[in-house]
Amino acid sequence: MTKLITTLLAAFLYAGTAMAASTNVLLAQSEANVSDEASLQRGASLYFNYCAGCHSIKYMRYTRIASDLNLSEDQLMNNLVFTGAKPGDLVTAAMPESSADWFGAAPPDLSLTARSRGSDWIYSYLKAFYVDPSRPLGWNNTVFPAASMPNVLWDRQGIQTLATHGDEGGHGMRLEDQFELAVEGTRTAAQFTQDARDITNFLTYVGEPAALQREKYGIWVFFYLLLLTGLLYVLKHEYWRDVH
Ligand code: HEC
Question: How far is the CA of 210 from the centre of ligand 1 (A)?
Fold first, then answer.
């Protein structure tokens, strides 16, 4: 028995170090909050403007997103549907499958990325692009080195270069210390942080849409249980009245 426990413990500790070794960049906190509806709406709009051309979120329908995020039919058609898709369609990418040939890797479906990679990873990734002339598309990323995605948000963020101080590649450095802004974007640093957070928030919702419902229904379940407790209490009294 002791042997089993030690083996399990060793395996656990080993897994811990292996995981720590695989990321050498400190992720920034996304502070994504799926109950912030305004943030989800902005995130959806940004997502459909900047990401949906390449990435699908194939388990979602436009109508589901609109109703979850309290968007009207007009807002849905103007902010989310650009591809000529019908509101009831699944959210596929505008790009053909063969786009892998253009980028070197196919843009993956992002339905479950918030679950597999985590919200902080997505948030940090969106803020970690920098110019690197040695890369085919001229962009590199400290969170996902040699990623074949260009910085699609560069007009908003501006153009970052790797900071010349500190160690190369920003290993172990805080995200915000790794870069210098070479060209200003249309958004201030704080506004771009909000952009990245909103998109991350939207993808976090996409990863688990039921989380929204759970929050809405939670309070009703609570009241139901409270009511039930009261009823059962009264019932118990009824049953035991003759005994006592
Ligand atoms: C021009 C096409 C294109 C656009 C637009 C685009 N991406 Fe990508 N994205 C890619 C490609 C290609 C990859 C695969 C990178 C690799 O594996 O090297 C990728 C990878 C990713 C990944 C990593 C997924 C994983 O688990 O490996 C995330 C997250 C991501 N993109 C998010 C976004 C977001 C958010 C947007 C919008 C702000 C966006 N992408 C816009 C092409 C694109």
Answer: 24
Q: What does the DSSP assignment read for 121-147?
A: HHHHHHH-EEE-TTSTTSEEESSSTT-
Domain count, the chain: 1
CA distances from 14 to 25, 107, 113, 116 (A): 20, 32, 25, 20
CA distances from 243 to 60, 83, 239 (A): 58, 72, 8
Give the domain range for residue 148: 31-234
**Residue written as token pair 């989800």:** 40
Give 128-186 pLDDT, tens digit per residue. Answer: 999 999 999 999 999 999 999 999 999 999 999 998 765 555 457 788 889 999 999 99
CA-proximal residue: ligand 1, atom 27 (nearest): 108
85 within some domain:
yes
Q: What is the DSSP letter of 108?
A: P
Q: Give the predicted TM-score (pTM) of the model.
A: 0.82
CA 233 to chain centre: 45
Residue closest via CA to ligand 1's atom 11 equals: 107
State the pairing for strand pair 129-131/90-91: unpaired
> Is residue 221 in some structural domain?
yes
H or E stretch including 59? strand 57-61
Report the nearest-CA residue for atom 40 of ligand 1.
Answer: 51
CATH number at residue 117: 1.10.760.10
Residues touching ligand 1 (Cβ under 6 Å) are 50-51, 53-55, 103, 105, 107-108, 110, 113, 117, 122, 125-126, 147-150, 152-153, 199
